[in-house]
Design goal:
The structure holds 2 protein chains of 2 kinds. By secondary structure, chain A is an all-beta fold. Helices cover 0% and strands 56% of the residues of chain A. Chain A has no helices and 11 strands. In chain A, the strands form 2 sheets. In chain A, strands 2, 4, 5, 9, 10 and 11 form a 6-stranded mixed beta sheet that branches. The radius of gyration of chain A is 13 Å and the shape is globular. Classes of the chains: A mainly beta, B mainly beta.
Chain lengths: 113, 115
């Protein structure tokens, strides 16, 4: 059974720091991996999707990497800002048929001015 | 930019009552999903829907749950007889067809409170 784990559970950094959020999954047979942002009491905003054949994806200050064989992904946030404060969720899709997502518990990020 | 919408934003119901949560997916998307998130817990998959039928469902999605796409735009989740443990945030999501991106787009959620 696929399990997704995110470390750390919470992270507090000063504004301007570069930071890395970690995601691991137990079964390397994934079709893709998606990173989301969730603000308190709100829905999920998709940040990046990495297909299983890809090693990384970039969007602005965000860079996500994928090492499928070791069951790991990282989300790198450059030059963090207070507006980046949110919970970041990692989710994997075990297969392309249907494409359900299995989520980690998230990393709660706080960026202090 | 197209987005997934959900109504109502908050639903309060008494135990044993039926509720219908409504979603309008992005118009050209073909795959539809329901997830739920109990307060403080992980987001959990409930069901996926494609070509007017359920393609996959989780253990949570028992006989008390059903989904329907009654017309070309709406996608609904019905809980027949709600229980206290059904209290959660329910998210609808959609994605394009097989030739498009596999990226799932989520709605803002419906907070269901069962009393």
């Amino acid at each position: 059974k696929q399990e997704v784990t995110q470390i750390p559970a919470a992270l507090s950094v000063p504004e301007g720091e570069n930071l890395v959020l970690n995601c691991s999954f137990t079964d390397s047979a994934i079709y893709n991996l998606q990173w989301f942002r969730q603000d308190p009491g709100k829905g999920l905003t998709s940040l990046l999707l990495i297909q299983s054949s890809q090693r990384e994806q970039t969007s602005g200050r965000l860079n996500a990497s994928l090492d499928k064989s070791s069951g790991r992904s990282t989300l790198y946030i450059a030059a963090s800002q207070p507006g980046d404060s949110a919970t970041y969720l990692c989710a994997v899709s075990p297969h392309n048929q249907g494409g359900k997502l299995i989520f980690g518990q998230g990393t709660e990020l706080s960026v202090k001015p | 930019e197209p987005e997934v919408t959900q109504t109502p934003s908050h639903q309060v119901t008494q135990m044993g009552q039926e509720v219908i949560l409504r979603c309008v997916p992005i118009s050209n998307h073909l795959y539809f999903y329901w997830y739920r998130q109990i307060l403080g817990q992980k987001v959990e998959f409930l069901v996926s829907f494609y070509n007017n039928e359920i393609s996959e469902k989780s253990e949570i999605f028992d006989d008390q749950f059903s989904v329907e796409r009654p017309d070309g735009s709406n996608f609904t989740l019905k809980i027949r007889s709600t229980k206290l443990e059904d209290s959660a945030m329910y998210f609808c999501a959609s994605r394009p067809g097989a030739t498009g991106s596999y990226e799932q787009y989520f709605g803002p959620g419906t907070r269901l409170t069962v009393t």
